[in-house]
Amino acid sequence: MAIQWFPGHMTSARKKAAETMEFTDVVIEVLDARLPAASHNPMIDEMRLFRQRPNLKILNKADLADPKATQAWLNYFNKQPNTKAVALSCKKAGDAKKIPGHCRKLAPHRGTHIKPLRMMIMGIPNVGKSTLMNALLNRRAAKVGDEPAVTKNQQRFELDPTMNIVDTPGMMWPRIEHDSDGFMLAACHAIGRNAVIDEDIATYLADNLLANYPDLLSTRYKTDVSDMDGVDLLEAIAKRRAYKRRDGLLDLERTAMVFLTDFRHGSIGRISLETPDSRIAMLAGDES
Ligand SMILES: Nc1nc2c(ncn2[C@@H]2O[C@H](COP(=O)(O)OP(=O)(O)OP(=O)(O)O)[C@@H](O)[C@H]2O)c(=O)[nH]1
Ligand SMILES: [Mg+2]
């Protein structure tokens, strides 16, 4: 099953972002630290490279990600040209405050009253762009919410007379090339619920976590998960918690939602869905 989600407002968001790029000195690309490659929108690089703008990559929600995987991703991204990568949690006071300093270094010719430093925050839906903006401004200027496509229009704010910053609507791209990327994005709630079936996403997630974090699952769901596959795990959770439908069968829809919510809130533990090595293996497998 291939997941695609490119609602109408994103077409105009894409056009407006390309226009604003001309008047931008540094692109702040917000990625999800749990899936930094899958949460990279290739359209952003296209626009950025066309104008040759430097790139600050933020691996956000690092509080939810596996610290080892995050470090591996930072090493990987910091080798790329014209790019600086940092991991942070917008929810931690102070973390976001380091961002303007990094941007200044990437565009040293800007940052005066006459030539203010112009930054644009971009990224997929629900990754924390507006939360980051609010943390930088120290007030709730932009609306945030735990669902994709909360921001519908660009908004520019002045941080001080020498720096300003634009928040943009989350953008997906028209075709997600690798099916597993679509599943990971949906698991992290970057894709609208109307475009996916929660049970399929939960099963994918369960399989991924069984392969990589079996001990966290055993602890959270108080069950021995060895030899289980994703469907087994969801059934075991439903049985243990007596999630039943009216007809007496196990309520796997509810179980899927509970499991996804546990993951999204970090209740299972600090988890990353991909590492640079798993990415390379996935790409090699897709090509063979
Ligand atoms: N745990 C955690 N949650 C975060 C972090 N940053 C943002 N969030 C949460 O992620 C959700 C989405 O945040 P937003 O700032 O609205 O995301 P956005 O990228 O602006 O989303 P769109 O406007 O829909 O594209 C909210 O529930 C935030 O509280 C973080 O660093 N850690
Ligand atoms: Mg937003």
Describe this structure in words.
This protein is an alpha/beta fold and 288 residues long. It has two domains: 8-167, P-loop containing nucleotide triphosphate hydrolases (Rossmann fold), CATH 3.40.50; 197-287, Conserved Hypothetical Protein Ylqf, Chain: A, domain 2 (Orthogonal Bundle). It has eleven helices and six strands. It has helices at residues 8-21, 42-50, 67-77, 99-106, 129-137, 179-187, 198-212, 214-221, 230-240, 252-265, 276-287, and strands at residues 26-32, 55-60, 83-87, 117-123, 155-160, 163-167. A six-stranded mixed β-sheet has the order 3-2-1-4-6-5, with helices on both faces. The protein is elongated. The site of guanosine-5'-triphosphate has 24 residues, from helix 5. The site of magnesium ion (MG) has 4 residues, from helix 5.
Largest sheet: 6 strands, mixed
Query: In CATH terms, what is the architecture of the largest domain?
Result: 3-Layer(aba) Sandwich
Give the low-pLDDT segments: none
* Secondary-structure element order, N to C: HEHEHEHEHEEHHHHHH
Distance between the termini: 19 Å
| Name of the CATH class of the largest domain | Alpha Beta
Q: What count of domains describes the coordinates?
A: 2
- What is the tally of beta strands? 6
Helix-and-strand structural type: alpha/beta
Order of strands in the sheet with most strands = 3-2-1-4-6-5
3D shape: elongated
- CATH fold-level label of the largest domain: Rossmann fold
CATH superfamily of the largest domain: P-loop containing nucleotide triphosphate hydrolases
Give me the number of helical elements.
Answer: 11
The fraction of residues in strands falls at 5-15%
Q: Using the CA coordinates, give the radius of gyration.
A: 20 Å
> Which molecules other than protein and nucleic acid are bound?
guanosine-5'-triphosphate, magnesium ion
Report helical residue fraction.
40-55%
Mean pLDDT: 95
